Amino acid sequence: MRHPSDRFEGLLLNTNLIQISVFAGLTALVAVLTWWKCRHSLHSSDESKDYFLAGGGLSWPFVAGSLLLTNISAEQIVGMNGAQMLLVAWWEFGAAAGLLVLAHVLVPMYYKYQCTTTTELLEKRLGDPGLRRLVSVLFLLGYMFILLPVVLYTGSVFMKSMFQLDVPIIIIAGAFAVGGLLYAVFGGLRAIAISDTFNGVGLLVMGLTVTVFALAAVHWDLSGVPAERWSLIGSSDSDIPWSTLLTGMLFIHIFYWGTNMVIAQRAMAARSVREAQKGIYAAAAFKFVIPLIVVFPGVIAFKLYGDIGDVAYGRLVGDVLPPWLSGAFAAMIVGAVLSSFNSCLNSAAALYTCDLHVPMVNANADVKKIGQRVATIFAIVGVAMVPMFQHAQSIVDTLQRLNGLYSMPVLAAFLAAIFMRGVSARAVKIGIAFGVALYAVFTFVWSPLHYIHLMAITLAATLLVVLVLSRLGGSARSGVEAAR
Hints:
The protein contains 20 helices and no strands. The protein is mainly alpha-helical. The protein has one domain (4-394): Sodium/glucose cotransporter.
């Protein structure tokens, strides 16, 4: 007779085999479908546009799918559920405003000036390639040292907690990096956008399934969860005080959705302005559904486990889903992680190649080959930086704080170039340096207010410096005049 422990080990092995088989099968299916779709797509004769903007041929469903999945990665699912409170849903609700600004203000301008990168708009408006290069460098530093390692870290935390893997985080992060690099290097934005859409549909379905199973696990009874966990009105000492909704929150979303290459690149790759806008509208509508996936389960996890932080979602999924469904969900999460990771790699490659290498090093360079090399370097550095984020108390809060080092100065540059007349590019460059230094002081030396308030102050102060310096210079051309 077999010992009971032997039967348990056999059952556990079969469960793991089911999870792994479903996970591997779905991951392979998305890869095959993406390859098939890419193979039958029309390609542009412009190599940069074809590799970095999918040949300008994306239809609105692929724009919407890629926008959503690039944004909803493990740092969102793990980090926001890890907060275990409804308050963080403001990061999703506020996104709709940022998307509408992208649709009605920035997308028409990107298409009007035929931009390959978002930063190209600054050069076209103010006539200074140096300004474009400066902002590109800030984006590249942010991607390399903040966004990429956070995406890898949170995805690795989820996989480790869900499957109870006895593997160091850095090893899992390395596996993610290899997978993401393959998409970014060989398929460009077209492959990324197509795989995003397939994975996005799966993630929405599976995410809502997790919420239903989690509610069933608590017998649809959420009594006992403290009232502050349900509140959308943050206190002064919370992650999102209510007053920040009136100051920096909106500008964070305008930067992220409107000027950030990782996001805006999808809208810039559509067939037309109208097609891009339809995709953006669809993504904005879904932002009111997404909290059911990235926020609500964390509150349910609080009822089940208490305050356990960033491991909450992985543990919840592992506990409430049957093996075959947990394997399917893991495949969707991996797709989401790869989406954000390879999207960032592709955007970094586009910024470096189009804004720095071609104009400064070799005008006749093979843009695809340069882009592939840049993506590889960024992937390696991203993995190496993962340990720096392992002790962060709140990964979403940490990500937003660090992004402020460049987000508000960069947004100030775009606002000045688009809306302020008589602005000089030199004043904008000095203003950016001032804004970075000011927010660094707020972050590392003196923090008199919540960081979202400080971001709004940084933005206003940077714009004031730009305006004053431009007036003192006296010889600046307006953005409109420079664009002509």
